[in-house]
Structures are given as structure tokens and as C-alpha cells.
Design a protein that fits this description.
- With about 180 residues, this protein is an alpha/beta fold.
- It folds into 2 domains: about 1-115, Nucleoside phosphorylase domain (Rossmann fold); about 130-183, no CATH class.
- The chain has helices at about 40-45, 80-95, 150-165; strands at about 30-35, 50-55, 60-65, 70-75, 95, 100-105, 110-115, 135-140, 175-180.
- It has a 5-stranded mixed β-sheet. The chain has a two-stranded antiparallel sheet with strand order 5-6. A two-stranded antiparallel sheet has the order 8-9.
- The relative contact order is 0.15.
Amino acid sequence: MNNIAESELILNSRGAVYHLDMRPEELASVVITVGDPDRVKEVSKYFDAVEHKLHHREFNTHTGRIGKKRISVVSTGIGPDNVDIVMNELDAVANIDLETRTVKKELSSLIIFRVGTCGSLQAYVGADSFVTSTHGLGTDNLLNYYQHTNNEEENVLVQQFMLQTHLNADRIQPYIASASPSL
């Protein structure tokens, strides 16, 4: 296998991915992402034990346990560019041998939950309400850099969104992704 160039996989002095300052042993297979770095401690206070506390720039990570379940909570900061950094570095930690800079033969899938705050256009959804999304819709161009194919339902939803918002399809290409039905 080809080694990944230092310019494509930036590691810090302790051999951890740069932005998250994370090594494989510091990541759980279940990850909760939050935007606000201060919200990490608000989630991890419910852990029975915290094994790792990492901090670099606006990225905080706590990895610990609830019972026998190991969980990491990671802040993403604000905006799709930061989310992109977090997702890429989580993937690198899970699927690249950081010492040899090669992709592992056995790839791992992480279970990732997004917990955050949002506004609402519906009057019946009051402040401090809990909302569970069935889909995520974006009007930035981030997902255009990844392989993604919409299913029939997603295509219909994007078309309805374009009609309702009167967006110019030549200028904006929204994307949509369904949440896990098991959640």
C-alpha cells in the first residue's frame, strides 16, 4: 500500500491527527458530535468514567464509558468546514495506521450521533423542545466532495425544497441525507 503523504495526513508531535489531537486508542466506535466545545463536558458528565480528555483549538473530545459502553463526544465548532475536518480526522483515526501512514486492511465504521440546538419555523415547536430529525439538508457545497447517491425519497424531498424556496438550481445544489431508521 502507498503511504499517505505528510501534507495529506498531518500528525502532531505525539503522532495524533492534528486538529483533534487524537490517536486510535482515544476514540470509541460510538461518537456523539456537538457544535459547542463547552457542550462536550455537558455530555460527558453523564459518563461513569472519562478515560481521555483532548483539546486542540475549538475541538474538544472526551472518551469514556457508560456502563460497559465506550463513547466519545467530540465538538465540531461551527460550519460545514469544521464538520468536514472532524469527520475526516475521525475516519483517519479509525481507518489509517498512523505509524505507517497506510489504510488499514480491515476498515471500521463509526456510529455517529449529532446532538445540537436548532431554531424552528413552526410556532408549535417551542424553545427547549427536543427534536429528532429524519433527514439532514444542506445548501453548502460540502457533500459534493463525497460519493453520495440519493434514494427516491431523498430526490423528491430535494425537488420539493427547490420548489418551495424558489432557489436557482444553476447556483445552488442542495443535498440531503436520511438519518438512520434504527435511531
